Amino acid sequence: DFDKLEKDLDHYLRQRRMTALTLKPELLTIGPVSLRTLSAGEAEIMPVRIRSRRGVSSEEAATLLVEARAIAAKYPDDAAVLAALAECEYDAGHDKEAVAAADTAIKRDPSQVNAYVQKGYALFREAEDNKGDDKERAAAYKTARAPFIALNRLENDHPLPLIYFYRSFVEQGEQPPKLAVDGLIRAVELAPFDLGLRMTLGTTLLRLGRSPEARIVLGPVANNPHGGGMSTFAHNLIERMANDPAWKGEDMGEEMPKDSEGEGAEGS
């Protein structure tokens, strides 16, 4: 009832005293902060990185790739430049070139997070396009998992390795193991803003018969103030679970609505 909400808010604002918590500086632990100057290659590739990270159309990707390749030719030993090149190659649809650039970047500097990500993206796309038998497809997805597993060792709290480890089973039509589901739960903890990720976890938990958890996970999606198809879908799922606690999403369908706000942790 919005009228009641308005009255409650007015009442709250008219209070003489409000509860507050004082956090003194000594209660906060601040880790070391370090700064460094960009290399010449990093500085030159930065506008390309910004435009690529923002998202590009196929035409924009082709144009940006020309710039990235030209800069990479000037700085062939700069790992950050090569990682940015890998992203541009991937955006332009050149998976093998993306993997090659990422491999070279990782060889030059094993701490280049984006190189692992772009290599994983490219290998996953190749796995998705693999038309071989089950054994060949399983091998392709195993190869695609490798960069994300390596990234997980490097950066344990990065959500993408957890997401793609889970996806590598689902996209083969296999039941994800408990480890993969636990990883997806952790990914939502790390990237709670990603509504699409929440939708994936919520429907997964529903199919596993874990309805109470699914309802909690889907709550922010259903209550998204911007609405959209995903919000409506999540709301309907929650309502169905409330009316039928034994339901495991049998007739839910495979295609989930996608809204622009659902692309958070998985954006390039």
Shape: globular
The proportion of residues forming helix, as a percent range, comes to 55-70%
Largest sheet: none
The averaged pLDDT comes out at 92
Number of strands: 0
**What's the tally of helices?**
12
Distance between the ends: 41 Å
Q: What integer value in Å does the Rg equal? A: 23 Å
Structural class: mainly alpha
* Residues in β-strands, percent: under 5%
Task: Name the features.
268 residues; mainly alpha; 12 helices; 65% helix; globular
How would you explain this protein's 3D organization?
It is a single chain. The protein has 268 residues and is mainly α. It has a domain at 196-261. It is 65% helix and 0% strand. The chain contains twelve helices and no strands. Helix 8 runs antiparallel to helix 9. The protein is globular, with a radius of gyration of 23 Å. The model has no long low-confidence stretch (mean pLDDT 92).
